[in-house]
């Protein structure tokens, strides 16, 4: 084994074959069919993608797919013109989808609202006219700082419709983060709400905007949706109520033809490290990627009720709440608030009440559900579900097994979807019905995706040898650049292995060719000459019945290079005792080997996470090393976690 590769210690060997009943009606019903399509997608990518693009509406149909002559800048479908909002809305108005529910919304307080495709189209047209009236034209940037309400999707679609570039800023960010993103994008307009509901309290979005835009010279107007009814300051001429400006415009709006490479959105990566990057996506390639992955990965059918629990502030919300599902004419459930409000069974109650068929969430949420207890899902009838998905982090095999059993009733396939803000759409995932699943593996690449695991020297890693995950060929929904910093784009993604996209993740391929993502390579620890991905040690801890969640980091150690420190959260009702600590240390030694036995286990109520739910190991590393916690903390979800961890440290 190459000295520089990452050692994989996972022994996970469970395999679940696709169920016949599911396969019978699946869009891709067999492994053979997948292989055939996958081969075609790599051998003749232009032909493959142009064929899929034909499902969608183009004002001028593209005749070519990829142009990579200006690498690392790809263009796709460059001679075509289209409109993503037209494809999400107008395209569905001629047939039976006209009066189909596009968005079924449930507010945190329990209010409900349904928008059919016709109604959503009307709202988007009106808001497109509002933007026009405020002086927003093609190419202008618009910031959207809202909660999870249908108007967030309406605002996004209206921007896409007129060719304005939206940048959605997650509603949990503070004023400073809003200011920095608005300034980086040089947005002209900010769309927000008086407040957003979160666990029964009001998040003062407009107040944050007021503070942010005191220092953003480019912002000329704000549009404010009234949602919570709290008092807000409105500056005449600058701030406009959503309901007022909407009254004053017609409901007709013709979608213009936009170039396939017209910029669609900028999304700042949440980032567990460093300064946020403005990831730029463009229209045609992103549209085709989001459309095709939604259809195949979720095996979407006309009568599905699809629920993705992500926030629209993240790429998952962009691709799999708004653009992918709506481009497919799907019915999407959208929920405003916290998963444990008013009770810890809110999510299961909603699945039961709306007869949700497809449920897509994150490992961090699944671990919280495990911690809250089995009695919550068991109280509800979840038999409407036919497919489950997960995204955002490597999923610990035991959390996967819990998801399969408690939520999926051992009946639903689980699609573990690996992708990134930068990739725009799902890159690796089982196709349900065609590909067997293994707990913790994202299995095989989607059509047109050419992933490889490389050693540091660029040679390909052997089976089960951990290495660096790269994507060898361009794909339609890939990011086009970093907004305002093209040099950083080339440097970050295309310099490690010239001309090849480097994901920043570690991974291995098993004997069946299945991929196992082992987390960010920045998180790799070096213990006595073993380079270990922390995710596998964490999974060994989570496999113990007392553990809900674990994060493992390295601390400098004179003997071993690095010593392992595990931060562990126990399940409800379990006491974090010294005996348990000893049991867990032995447990890891038994599961993996003595070399992976942590040097220290620290029990904690909570782990520091980004606002999108990823564990911030960088902060834990600094804590474990006994140093000051420095660096960017604007993405930390709950600042009090750090103070608590420090206090536990004595
Ligand atoms: O490390 C991988 C992890 O999340 C990173 C991308 O994060 P972000 O840009 O915020 O996008 C999240 C939603 C797509 C990846 O580099 N990641 C995401 N999905 C998985 C994953 N790691 C393992 N398995 C996954 N399914």
Explain this structure.
This protein has 650 residues and is α/β, with parallel strands linked by helices. The chain has 2 domains: 20-338 and 417-448, Rossmann fold; 528-649, 2-Layer Sandwich (GMP Synthetase, Chain A, domain 3). It is 31% helix and 22% strand. The chain has 20 helices and 31 strands. Helix 5 packs across helix 6 (150-162) and helix 13 crosses helix 15. The protein is globular and about 70 Å long. The mean pLDDT is 94. The structure holds adenosine-5'-monophosphate-propyl ester. Adenosine-5'-monophosphate-propyl ester (PRX) is lined by residues 269-270, 315-316, 391-394, 416-421, 442, 503-505, 517, 519-520, 612.
């Amino acid at each position: 084994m190459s000295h520089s590769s990452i050692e994989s210690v996972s022994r996970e060997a469970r395999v679940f074959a696709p169920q016949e009943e599911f396969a019978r009606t699946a869009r891709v019903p067999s492994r053979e069919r997948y292989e055939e399509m996958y081969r075609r997608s790599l051998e003749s990518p232009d032909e493959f993608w142009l064929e899929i693009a034909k499902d969608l509406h183009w004002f001028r149909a593209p005749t070519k797919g990829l142009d990579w002559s200006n690498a690392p800048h790809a263009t796709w479908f460059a001679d075509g013109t289209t409109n993503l909002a037209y494809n999400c809305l107008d395209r569905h108005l001629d047939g039976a989808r006209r009066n189909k529910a596009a968005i079924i919304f449930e507010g945190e307080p329990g209010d409900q609202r349904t928008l059919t495709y016709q109604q959503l189209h009307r709202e988007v047209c009106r808001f497109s006219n509002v933007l026009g009236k405020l002086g927003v034209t093609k190419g202008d940037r618009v910031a959207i700082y809202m909660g999870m309400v249908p108007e967030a999707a309406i605002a996004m679609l209206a921007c896409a419709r007129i060719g304005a570039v939206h940048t959605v800023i997650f509603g949990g960010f503070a004023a400073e983060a809003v200011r920095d993103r608005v300034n980086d994008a040089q947005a002209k307009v900010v769309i927000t709400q008086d407040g957003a509901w979160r666990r029964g309290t009001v998040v003062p979005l407009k107040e944050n905007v007021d503070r942010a835009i005191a220092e953003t010279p480019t912002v000329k107007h704000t549009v404010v949706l009234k949602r919570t009814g709290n008092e807000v300051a409105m500056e005449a001429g600058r701030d406009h109520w959503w309901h007022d400006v909407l009254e004053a415009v017609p409901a007709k709006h013709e979608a213009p033809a936009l170039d396939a490479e017209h910029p669609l959105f900028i999304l700042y990566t949440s980032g567990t490290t460093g300064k946020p990057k403005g990831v730029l996506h463009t229209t045609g390639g992103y549209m085709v990627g989001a459309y095709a992955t939604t259809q195949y990965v979720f095996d979407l059918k006309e009568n599905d009720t699809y629920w993705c629990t992500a926030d629209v502030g993240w790429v998952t919300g962009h691709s799999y709440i708004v653009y992918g599902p709506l481009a497919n004419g799907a019915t999407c459930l959208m929920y405003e608030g916290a998963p444990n409000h008013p009770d810890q069974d809110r999510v299961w109650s909603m699945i039961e009440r709306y007869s949700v068929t497809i449920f897509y969430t994150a490992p961090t949420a699944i671990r919280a559900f495990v911690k809250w207890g089995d009695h919550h899902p068991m109280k509800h009838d979840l038999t409407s579900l036919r497919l489950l998905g997960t995204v955002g982090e490597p999923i610990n095999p035991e959390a996967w097994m819990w998801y399969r059993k408690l939520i999926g009733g051992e009946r639903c396939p689980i699609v573990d979807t690996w992708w990134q803000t930068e990739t725009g759409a799902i890159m690796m995932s089982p196709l349900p019905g065609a590909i067997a699943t293994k707990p913790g593996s994202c299995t095989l690449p989607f059509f047109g995706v050419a992933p490889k695991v490389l050693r540091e020297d660029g040679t390909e890693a052997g089976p089960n040898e951990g290495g660096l995950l790269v994507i060898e060929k361009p794909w339609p929904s890939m990011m086009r650049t970093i907004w305002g910093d093209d040099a950083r784009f080339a440097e970050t993604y295309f310099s490690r292995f010239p001309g090849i996209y480097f994901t920043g993740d570690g991974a291995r391929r098993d004997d069946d060719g299945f991929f196992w993502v082992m987390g960010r390579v920045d998180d790799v620890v070096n213990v006595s000459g073993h380079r270990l991905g922390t995710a596998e040690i964490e999974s060994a801890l989570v496999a113990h019945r007392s553990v809900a969640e674990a994060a493992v980091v390295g601390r400098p150690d004179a003997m071993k290079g690095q010593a392992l420190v595990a931060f562990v959260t126990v399940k409800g009702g379990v006491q974090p005792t010294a005996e348990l600590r000893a049991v867990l240390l032995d447990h890891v030694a038994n599961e993996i080997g003595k070399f992976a036995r942590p040097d220290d286990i620290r029990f904690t109520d909570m782990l520091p996470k980004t606002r999108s739910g990823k564990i911030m190991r960088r902060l834990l590393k600094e804590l474990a090393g006994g140093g000051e916690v420095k660096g960017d903390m604007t993405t930390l979800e709950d600042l009090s976690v750090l103070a608590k961890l420090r206090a536990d440290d004595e």
